[in-house]
Task: structure prediction
Amino acid sequence: MKNAKLVGKSDLNKKSVVRLNERLSIGDRDILIIGGPCTVESQAQMDTIAQQLTGSIQALRGGVYKPRTSPYAFQGMGTNGIEILARTSRASGLPVVTEVMAIQQIETLANQVDMLQVGSRNMQNFDLLKALGEVDKPVLLKRGLAATIEEFIMAAEYIVSHGNPNVVLCERGIRSFDNYTRNVLDLGAVSALKHLTHLPVIVDPSHAAGRRELIGDLSRAAIACGADGLIIECHPEPDQSVSDAQQALSLPAMAQLVESLRPIATAVGRHLPLSPVQNPALMAA
Ligand SMILES: O=C[C@H](O)[C@H](O)COP(=O)(O)O
Ligand SMILES: C=C(OP(=O)(O)O)C(=O)O
Result:
């Protein structure tokens, strides 16, 4: 892809490693598991997830600015949610990832969280991408709802060409004709992105499937296919989630899913760093 001057793979062996903090990185031998709710709802919700999933997840997710289809749907807790994320992160030591929807949100979020997510709906918001190029925080760039692989790669090129090399790509399913699943997980894209770019690639099986019973299989397939990590939605009371309830895993289900990845990671020469010992959700499973 000739215009992908910075993110394209000129040397076949080149692989970028993006650091989340002093201890954690994405794109090396270790698989990174990010877990958490679609939406931050309360301090207790986030603290429970962090405590119960010790030994299963290495980072927390949770939206405080939510890109909802309906303007009448819950739009996120905003700044109160950022404070909740920051407190849970400080107490648990887990880094946090959250979505940034607008340029004016960048500064506050960048001061409080470890990674800024660009959601599917904003993948080609070029002014937002340029602004994120000037930030000293890693960016998780999700594939647009119907973006081609080239469009996805060029969106990453916007961020990197504006000064921020720390971009992680996320395949989260694309639109197709069948609505049994929310989207169609494009594992071919994971492989293609690994061939075409040196950036780490993770998979979001939750938004791809939209149905919790399919998330385990898609997660295992993603790791077998070479993904560098997963971002998965889970909730202490999945059916009560204020958004995306059908795709939220319970905490025991999340812990079990992570355990099921271990042999697959080993088979593809990767490593799942966390130990299940002392994992409360796993004991409850
Ligand atoms: O809440 C967030 C959902 O993951 C997604 O962004 C939008 O979903 P919706 O169509 O239910 O608003
Ligand atoms: C809204 C989200 O995902 P996507 O942008 O992939 O739809 C999300 O991860 O909260």
